[in-house]
Structure formats: C-alpha cells, structure tokens
Design a protein that fits this description.
two-stranded antiparallel ribbon, disordered N terminus
Length: 163
C-alpha cells in the first residue's frame, strides 16, 4: 500500500511539473534578490485593446497595426536575472516547460556567447504563447506573451515589420 501511495504521489509531482507556465515561473522568481520582473495583467491589455489603432513603424517606414494582437493578450511576464545560480535554475525550468509543451522554435541567434531564442505554442489557427529567452553567460532573460493570438494576423504583422 505504501508503495502505491509513493508511486501516485510521484506521478502527481511529475504531472504538476509539466503543467508549469509563465505565471507560475514569474510568481516563483519575481521576488528573489537579483531578479528584475515585469508583469502586465489581462485588464491592462483589455484597456489597451480599446484604444484606436496602435501602429508600429516597420523597417520600410510603413505603419503596422498591432491592435488586433494586443487586444487578445492575457498576460506579459518578464524576468531578468543576473545571479548565476538563480539564472541557471530558471533556465532549466524554462527548457523543461518548452520541451514539455511542445513549443516550436521560430528562431535562434548567437552572438559572442549570447543566445536568443523565440518559441511559440498553439495550433494551426491560434498562438497561445510566445516565449523569448536570452542567455548570456551568468545572465538569463525570460519573456512570455500569453493569449489567443490569431496566427495569420501575427504572421502578417511579423512579415510587415520585417519588410
């Protein structure tokens, strides 16, 4: 009986580790020493989404409207860590989260030891999460945008801004 209880408890711990998300990581690390943290709530995104067109200037000088994406966001989480021990722990947890939820790597950039990666998670029609990570020596930055973003709109905005 004890073995059965231990096995069930182990399975519950393993399942909860796979369920980790950006909010849980933010709550775990945001109050630690050496951590800079930013959170933007769903209420703020709803308020921003009610504004008229939010334009961003693309590289070609044309305006790109971000309103359709912003109004569908439900959270923004940013953790910037300079403490090597804490940075390594968060990095390991983020890698586990990305691998466990089948995120897709969109791009990776390496420059003098600094590695930046952009991941998305969703289905064919929507993107539910965008994660940007940057690892530079002992420092690690984690950024997550959460919501239900229309994949086609997001791709169009990215294409327009890259022109």
């Amino acid at each position: 009986m004890k073995k059965l209880i231990i096995i069930i408890a182990s399975l519950l711990v393993a399942v909860s580790a796979f369920g980790q998300n950006a909010k849980e990581l933010y709550n775990k690390y945001s109050d630690l020493k050496g951590v800079s943290a930013v959170y933007v709530s769903p209420a703020m995104f709803r308020m921003i989404g009610k504004l008229p067109d939010m334009d961003m200037e693309a590289q070609n000088g044309e305006k790109v409207n971000l309103t359709p994406i912003v109004k569908n966001l439900s959270g923004f989480y940013l953790l910037d860590i300079e403490d090597a021990t804490v940075a390594d722990k968060l990095y390991a947890e983020v890698r586990h989260m990305i691998d466990g939820k089948k995120y897709e790597l969109l791009f990776e950039a390496k420059d003098n030891g600094e590695v930046t990666r952009l991941f998305t998670n969703g289905n064919g029609k929507t993107v539910s999460s965008i994660i940007l990570t940057t690892k530079d020596g002992d420092e690690f930055t984690f950024m997550s945008l959460e919501g239900n973003m229309d994949r086609e709109q997001l791709e169009n905005i990215l294409a327009e801004s890259a022109k």
